[in-house]
Amino acid sequence: MTAALMIDVNLVGPEASDDVLGVVHAGFGAREVVDPPSSAPDETVESVRAALAEHGGLLATSELGPVGGLLLAPDGDVLSLRRVSVHPDRQGRGVARALVRQAERIAAARGFSATRVLARAELPRTVRFWRRLGYVETDRDGPLVTLAKVLPVEVESRSADEARELGSRLAGALRAGDVVILSGDLGAGKTTFTQGIGAGLHVRGDVTSPTFVISRVHPSLGDGPALVHVDAYRLGGIEELDDLDLDTSLDEAVTVVEWGAGVAEGLADERLEVRITRPRGEHADSVDHDPRTVLFTPVGARWIEAGLGRVLTGALA
């Protein structure tokens, strides 16, 4: 097994154009021949310098020198990753993964909702690499496959009111057919958060813990979707969840499953996983005393245009 390199990945500008161009030419030059051919070998110092001056890029280095690079290209709420390249002598040693992870961190810090890349269908190993990193196909144009990954969003909730407001904000991005899977610490505020979703969806009835009834349906007071609220704490798996006949309402409602991690993922390939954690300390039993960390992890292409970062971040009441 090839040992991983000690890799340093840095955001770079036009001063690094020679190094970035070098790894682009080396990486793409070693790839299989495709038809039509890639335009990457046509890149010049001038074209790479211009791209780096406009939006920047990443350069991966090790004790061996430059080993990988890519160019950043914003497109609305999405940060595209162009010319993702690894020197052929350094492939299989974690360089590409390090580049992509750093690009995702930069994208999240800059407020982008997703990262995107183009791959060639004739290179299935490349497509599989992106899929292993959580990228899903969103478009295909001849041999070009567009893959994207919606980025997680982390928000701090400092009170029960803020947790409800956060849920209400999320409701503004939800639509019929969406599945939200809630997990986290006992007493972290999952039901409080769901109350906010119910308020934002304008549904009928008080949203309370469904522990003793397992599931409860809250019809819409208007023309929006109903809320199906499920507690999976006492369910043994997806088979028992299927026994609730939720499939009959999944397409018409927003389904929120508390304690759903490891149980409810089979309900939908595209879903929103929400983990709420609380601190340990003197007031750990009260959501009104200690902040909660709420991590939103979108799964599937449906969330690319949802703009969760814009919806969820910013000052809460």
Average of per-residue pLDDT values: 88
Which percent bin holds the helix content?
25-40%
Approximately how much beta-strand content do the residues carry? 25-35%
Helix vs. strand class: alpha/beta
Number of strands: 14
Low-confidence spans: pLDDT under 50, at least 5 residues?
none
- Number of helical regions: 9
Q: Which of globular, elongated, flat, extended, rod-shaped describes the shape? A: elongated
Q: Order of strands in the sheet with the most strands? A: 1-2-3-4-5-7-6
Q: Summarize the main sheet.
A: 7 strands, mixed
Note the quaternary state here.
single chain
End-to-end CA span? 53 Å
- Could you tell me the radius of gyration in angstroms? 23 Å
SSE succession: EHHEEEHEHEEEHEHEEHHEEEH
Question: What labels would you give this structure?
Answer:
317 residues, alpha/beta, seven-stranded mixed β-sheet, 14 strands, elongated
Question: Can you characterise this structure?
Answer:
The protein has 317 residues and is an alpha/beta fold. The protein is 27% helix and 29% strand. The chain has nine helices and 14 strands. The strands form two sheets. A seven-stranded mixed β-sheet has the order 1-2-3-4-5-7-6, sandwiched between helices. It has a seven-stranded mixed β-sheet with strand order 8-14-13-9-12-11-10. The longest helix has 15 residues, at 95-109. The relative contact order is 0.13.
Task: Write a brief structural summary.
Helix content is 27%, strand content 29%. It is an alpha/beta fold.
